[in-house]
């Protein structure tokens, strides 16, 4: 049985109107993992297009889940499936041999939804006012790739930029969800690099999606971490480095709109389905905000991470 379905938003008792600001009862936080209970980090591994589901065991070894679920997609992301996966002894699962490639940590992504200017300090860096309500745009799902895959600079690009972000993966269909119930619809959290071509995004005409959707502009993972392991989603450190120089060093404490609010807000305008990804905005330190601006070039190496959710590393290459 799925989480209770709500029919309105903004009800009394909702906890997070904006990140870190409590306005009611004890909702909006996932319960912490019980003492002695194994933390669960889910992943997908193998060649592009042929990834298998897996999990990371206590010794940081990949265990194969393909005998349990066909993939980390659809119904496998729901509460009932997650509870079943948590009950498995990782030692009973076969080890993945060698050092396989890590793929995106979720498959079957129907919508890749982004939130713009959702960090107060990033808005200030960009010379823009903090929005009164979330700025929403999309990335094409064809941009999704593994956390350590090469990032390809598209033809004609001169302003390819980086953005470390906290990603949210939906586990249960959500429509008209109450803010205080919102985390019950979340399968887990992950690291996202919301790569952007600023000229495509901001110059000329059209929507931001043009600058956000090039192939490889959506690395997701390495892991999908369940909400009970991330009760402090609103106080996670985020960082990003290019060639060893740290440009972004922020915290989800400065998010304008918190995760429960965003899930509730989006569910007013569209139904959210298992596997949908919401990437929640970036802290300051993007290339566009440097003085003078700094953009990615062939040969750069980007490293980024979110506390408790793992790290990514990408080599920057040019479109052949």
Brief synopsis:
This protein is 11% helix and 27% strand. With 320 residues, it is mostly beta strands. Strands 7-6-18-11-12 form a five-stranded mixed sheet. It has a five-stranded mixed sheet with strand order 9-20-19-16-17, with no helix packed on it.
Can you put this structure into words, describing what you see?
With 320 residues, the protein is mainly β. The chain has a domain at 107-318: Fumarylacetoacetase-like, C-terminal domain (Fumarylacetoacetate hydrolase, domain 2), CATH 3.90.850. It is 11% helix and 27% strand. The protein contains five helices and 20 strands. A hairpin with a 6-residue loop joins strand 3 and strand 4. The chain is globular and about 55 Å long. Mean pLDDT is 89; it is low at 1-37.
Annotate the secondary structure layout.
Elements: E1 16-18, E2 21-22, E3 41-45, E4 52-56, E5 62-64, H1 79-86, E6 112-116, H2 120-125, E7 135-139, E8 144-145, E9 151-153, E10 160-161, E11 164-170, E12 186-193, E13 196-197, H3 198-202, H4 209-212, E14 218-219, E15 224-225, E16 237-242, E17 245-251, H5 259-269, E18 277-279, E19 301-306, E20 310-318
Strand content: 25-35%
What is the class of one domain in the CATH system?
A: Alpha Beta
What's the CATH superfamily of one domain, by name? Fumarylacetoacetase-like, C-terminal domain
The CATH topology annotation of one domain reads as: Fumarylacetoacetate hydrolase, domain 2
Keywords:
single chain, 320 residues, mainly beta, Fumarylacetoacetate hydrolase, domain 2, five-stranded mixed sheet, 20 strands, 11% helix, globular, disordered N terminus
